[in-house]
Amino acid sequence: MKLTAVSAGLSTPSSTRLLADRLTESARDELATRGHAASIEVVELRELAGDVANHLVTGFPPPRLAAAIDTVTGSDGLIVVTPVFAASYSGLFKSFFDVIDPDALTGKPVLIAATGGTARHSLVLEHAMRPLFAYLRAATVPTAVYAASEDWGSGGDQHTDGLPARVRRAGAELAALMATRPTRAEPEDDVTALERQLADLRFD
User: Fold this and answer.
1) Which SUPFAM superfamilies match (predicted)?
2) Which segments of the chain are extended strands (E)?
3) Binning pLDDT at 50, 70 and 90, where does residue 200 land?
4) Per-domain boundaries in the chain
5) Is 110 helix (H, G, I), strand (E, B) or coil?
6) Residue 38: is its pLDDT beyond 50?
7) Within its chain, how far is the Cα of 13 from the centroid?
8) How far apart are CA 15 and CA 11, in angstroms?
9) pLDDT for 83-101, tens place per residue?
């Protein structure tokens, strides 16, 4: 199975990329327990910022961006992580998904996550990210993961699960959805498709 993480972190190293890696490990481990081997790819949006901007104004994706879009749309499951800017996802994050065909993510299992300096921005997951992927008709898992600065290294308390527990639960939910999703049929090449159309013809 193909599992892709999209990280919109701008710095190196980045807490956004760190969260993406932890979620990816959790989902991959859970898939392994279900008997599925997963290949992992990470799309770093900071490396594609110029290409995304060019595509928005020209309508044509440069080769590197086209390859990233193919990776995302061709995956069996997605993990998407953005830093919070002005109480919402980053402009780069939104612009990347703006250049993807609106039908390309239909039914695809998606785990949404975000990072920020304070816990008071955690609702970005529900008021911004979940509606975005609902519009794209993706199958978003129930548990969304937000990591504030104080969450790193925290084990939680009697009222709230710590970050590691939330990562494990979200990863398990994504793996379960990926494992039960019907297998994608391989696309036919042009010759095979033509042969099939000719075979379906009926002559009087």
Assistant:
1) Flavoproteins
2) 2-7, 39-44, 77-85, 88-89, 109-116, 139-140, 145-148
3) low
4) 2-199
5) strand
6) yes
7) 20
8) 9
9) 999 889 999 999 999 999 9
Residue-wise pLDDT tens digits, 156-184: 444 456 899 999 999 999 999 999 986 55
Which H helix or E strand runs over 177?
helix 163-180
> DSSP E strands: which ranges in 45-175?
77-85, 88-89, 109-116, 139-140, 145-148
What is the enclosing helix (H) or strand (E) of 45? Answer: none
pLDDT value for 56: 94
Six token digits for residue 15: 């807490």
Distance separating the N- and C-terminal Cα atoms of the chain: 46
Fold of 2-199: Rossmann fold (3.40.50)
Which residue is listed with tokens 């980045």? 14
Reading the block at residue 16, the tokens are 């956004």
**Three-state DSSP state, 123:** coil
How far, CA to CA in Å, does 197 sit from each of 59, 186, 187, 202, 203?
Answer: 32, 17, 15, 10, 13
The pTM for the full model equals 0.85
